[in-house]
Fold:
Amino acid sequence: MSELKVAHDDIDGGKSVATSSFSGEKANKTGGRLSSGARELLAGMASGVACKVIEYPFDTVKVLQQTNSGYNGAWDCLKVTWRQGGIQAFYRGLTSPLLGAMAENATLFVSYGWAKKVLNVDEDKATLANPVPVWKYLAGGAASGVTVAFVLTPVELIKCRMQVQSGLAATSTGKRYSGSLDCAKQILREEGLAGMWRGNGACLAREIPGNVAWFGCYELVLRGIQLAKGYDRKSDVPLAASAVAGSAAGVCYWAIPFPADTVKSKLQTDPRFAGLPFQQVFSTILKEDGVRGLYRGIGITAARAAPSHGMLFFAYETVERWLRQW
Structure:
């Protein structure tokens, strides 16, 4: 989602930026001089930063579990990491993902907005009696997943290598990278520009179904709330209800494509998998560690998804409302 996929368009209700970022011509005519697109973009980047700061320690534990089978569960991984480096060990490599969160949001908003335009989605006119077909949200999610994967791959490559360095492997091989920038320089020097997109295929395999699941779950839960409470339009749904839908969507986003994320982490951090195709790495993990190996770290990931996406909603709405005065 990554994890930066939820925000709101209408301050009076709870319309998702992910589902209304570029359909708000009406919103452009209200509020301050700052366009609705600019507000959504800026608020989305701010919410991404807030979300990343909260979820990053959980992500570090997830990556360490995926890339090292020596941990006896998430709690053991957390304790070992704390003993080795304290709180800093959980935030090693944060700079790259923070910047990536901003880039991811911008990419998602633009690509998803483009997909909705192509599909003639008009949420301002949609009602319970005449709703937007769910398949259009799913198709838009798939399109945004394709686009955002190319932005996320180099960011997550650096993130994963910095996180793994803080784990058990660092005690035997020593500290290799002094920071995110040094990590990027070494990758470019040793593997060339193409090396920055190592694991892109696995990232695509995660982002496409992940975004389909995210948008699908979000829209279905939100529509269910609309039906239960009798809200005629999505913009009538309260923020709290949208936050619930977003939290559920965050869990769905990670639960469905998680094996692809495990393969991506292996491709980006384990030298023995360098240059190998996705299917071969997948088969190797399955053979060596079984299905459990493909889902190592899923518990800590699901645990972080709901609160972090809830925080993303809150941060976005706060910033978006504040920007309306400009």
